[in-house]
Design brief:
Blueprint (H helix, E strand, L loop, with lengths): L4 H14 L1 E2 L2 E2 L15 H13 L3 H24 L7 H4 L3 H19 L3 H14 L4 E4 L3 E4 H10 L12 H13 L3 H24 L7 H4 L3 H19 L3 H14 L4 E4 L3 E4 H15 L7
Antiparallel strand pairs: 1-2, 3-4, 5-6
């Protein structure tokens, strides 16, 4: 963008002379080893995501450090102009805030994966302290709040728990895996995260249906399916701990509000989550003095 050329050039020269990333000594390969593309924040953040996926941590530090060095001042200014996250239709206007916050998050994830917990904590806390309204664009069509993800990372920093890419599919898969090994803490962590992020979309998708979606269209109702499934998984974990009343509430949520949810079986078919939930409610009634609502 031509109106930013002078600022970018000055920032690049300052970076080369200073040889630092966000005030820390550079520990990565020289800048010349990396292709920074057009130097825009979007390009740098995109390259950082790719490097993180490839576990190329030196590249992560190079790309995120470059973005932070060039655009952090603007990002902080944009954050200070807000008192809440920008609505979707205006969110792209806060490009520096969004991309710099995202780069801190990516770098924090990279540090965490390397066991550098203090450095990871510093980056996640930087988001909360000065870039709290930053949002990251998901190519599927929505923004997610970087500060909320940073809080999750801080809360699980010295544990084995990881929310991955935060998609409903990933969270549901992790919840199933946790249930299989009877890690009920992880089950609650992953199911409740999926529910908190996607329940509103699930309810909308439920409201658009008058019957179960046919198999060829069922995947289009991803939020409904995954949130309904997460309530079911949560109920299963609660039942296993004899927390019957809480389990009943989870199963009834599916039956009463997400009744058209379907769960994909890797063997090649969908099963109806509400039908299975009714079965669990009946089982709870048989095993306790509780009787289901009429």
């Amino acid at each position: 963008m031509s109106y930013r050329t002078t600022a970018i050039t000055a920032a690049v020269m300052g970076w080369l002379l200073l040889g630092t990333v966000a005030g820390a000594e550079m520990t990565t390969a020289p800048a010349a080893s990396y292709d920074f593309g057009d130097m825009t924040s979007a390009t740098l953040a995109g390259k950082a995501w790719q490097a993180l996926a490839a576990q190329d941590y030196a590249a992560v530090e190079a790309y995120t450090g470059k973005c932070i060095t060039l655009y952090e001042t603007k990002a902080v200014e944009q954050n200070q102009s807000l008192n809440a996250p920008a609505p979707k239709e205006r969110a792209f206007d806060y490009w520096a805030l969004n991309d710099v916050a995202t780069c801190y998050f990516i770098r924090g994830k990279a540090f965490k994966e390397q066991g550098k917990m203090e450095a990871a904590s510093a980056d996640f806390n930087a988001i909360l302290e000065k870039l709290s309204y930053g949002q990251c664009w998901d190519p599927k069509g929505w923004f997610w709040q970087v500060s909320e993800a940073a809080k999750d990372q801080l809360n699980t920093l010295r544990t084995s728990y990881d929310f991955g890419d935060y998609t409903s599919e990933t969270l549901t898969t992790k919840a199933w895996q946790a249930l299989d090994v009877k890690d009920y803490t992880a089950v609650e962590l992953y199911t409740k995260k999926c529910i908190s992020l996607y329940e509103a979309d699930a309810v909308k998708q439920q409201g658009s249906l008058e019957e179960f979606a046919p198999k060829e269209k069922a995947f289009s109702f991803w939020a409904l399916n995954d949130v309904g499934t997460c309530y079911f998984i949560l109920g299963e974990a609660l039942m296993a701990q004899a927390r019957y009343e809480e389990a009943r509430v989870a199963f009834e949520k599916v039956v009463n509000e997400l009744s058209f949810a379907q769960c994909w079986d890797p063997k090649g078919w969908f099963w109806k989550v509400a039908v299975a939930s009714r079965g669990r409610i009946n089982k709870i009634a048989a095993e306790t003095t509780y009787q289901p609502h009429s």
